[in-house]
């Protein structure tokens, strides 16, 4: 019986579980705001690196990939600037510390 009660506390899709807490909603929002840009900024860079690697393995030269590589790598810079700004915006502790 105790194991069944513990399962309902861990998994939100059980019907017997109470409403989702404010902390859970806030955590999900914070994770989505901070993780999605990381994925969006690194995915094109990863695809470009894979394409360049396959170009070397196949012995072909694709100047478009090399020409676009610096612009695609600048996406890392966008993420580097975005991540701290979003942390400052979404963190209660940071906001509380900045007022004092």
Task: List its traits.
100 residues, mainly alpha, 82% helix, 0% strand, elongated
Task: Provide an overview of this structure.
The chain is an all-alpha fold. It has one domain (22-99). The chain contains 4 helices and no strands. The protein has helices at 2-10, 22-58, 63-90, 92-99. It is elongated, with a radius of gyration of 22 Å. The protein starts with a helix and ends with a helix. The relative contact order is 0.10. The model has no long low-confidence stretch (mean pLDDT 76).
Topology (SSEs and partners):
Blueprint: H1 2-10, H2 22-58, H3 63-90, H4 92-99
Transmembrane segments: 27-51, 71-90
Keywords: Membrane, Transmembrane, Transmembrane helix
Protein name: G-protein coupled receptors family 1 profile domain-containing protein
For the termini, the CA-CA separation is: 49 Å
What best-fitting shape do the alpha-carbon axes yield? elongated
Share in helix: over 70%
Structural class, by secondary structure, is mainly alpha
Whole-number average pLDDT?
76
The main β sheet shows up as: none
Unreliable runs, pLDDT <50, ≥5 residues? none
Quick description:
The protein has one domain.
């Amino acid at each position: 019986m105790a194991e069944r009660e513990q399962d309902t506390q861990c998994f939100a899709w059980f019907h017997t579980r109470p409403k989702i807490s404010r902390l859970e909603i806030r955590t999900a929002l914070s994770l989505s705001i901070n993780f999605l840009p990381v994925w969006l900024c690194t995915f094109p860079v990863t695809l470009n690196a894979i394409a360049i690697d396959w170009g070397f393995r196949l012995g072909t030269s694709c100047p478009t990939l090399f020409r676009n590589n610096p612009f695609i790598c600048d996406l890392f810079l966008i993420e580097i600037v975005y991540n701290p700004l979003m942390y400052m915006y979404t963190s209660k502790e940071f906001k509380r510390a900045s007022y004092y």
